[in-house]
Amino acid sequence: MCLAIPGRIIEMVDEANGIAKVDVSGVRRNVNIALLDGARVGDYVLIHVGFALSRVDEKEAELTLRTLQELGAYEQELEQFESSLD
């Protein structure tokens, strides 16, 4: 299953190319944020296959994580995110 998973931008790695480091439950990976105008450190984003697709607020990010956990999909998505390459 490949779902979008919420994470928080913690660092701008390469602003010119739209690359940011994102934290998802302690797992940190570089993702492409170029699809989002004005994304910045502290923003929560939905990540799918290495791309941030949309910005979400903190409450929505927490609700999405909780829902994924309840559906039993969270661990699989987190494992896929953790095993992805920077």
State the end-to-end distance.
21 Å
CATH class: Mainly Beta
Using the CA coordinates, give the radius of gyration. 12 Å
The second-level CATH architecture is Roll
Determine the CATH topology: SH3 type barrels
Q: List the uncertain runs.
A: none
Number of domains: 1
What is the averaged pLDDT score? 86
- Give the SSE string: EEEEEHH
Largest sheet, order of strands side by side? 3-2-1-4-5
Structural features:
SH3 type barrels; 5 strands; 86 residues; 38% strand; single chain; globular; five-stranded antiparallel beta sheet; alpha+beta
Write a concise synopsis of the structure shown:
With 86 residues, the chain is of the alpha+beta class.
Molecular structure report:
28% of the residues lie in helices and 38% in strands. The radius of gyration is 12 Å and the shape is globular. Strands 3-2-1-4-5 form a 5-stranded antiparallel beta sheet. It has one domain (5-83): SH3 type barrels (Roll), CATH 2.30.30. The model has no long low-confidence stretch (mean pLDDT 86). The protein has helices at 58-71, 74-83; strands at 5-14, 19-24, 27-32, 44-48, 51-56. It is an alpha+beta fold and 86 residues long. It contains 2 helices and 5 strands.
Secondary-structure topology with pairs:
Layout: E1 5-14, E2 19-24, E3 27-32, E4 44-48, E5 51-56, H1 58-71, H2 74-83
Antiparallel strand pairs: 1-2, 1-4, 2-3, 4-5
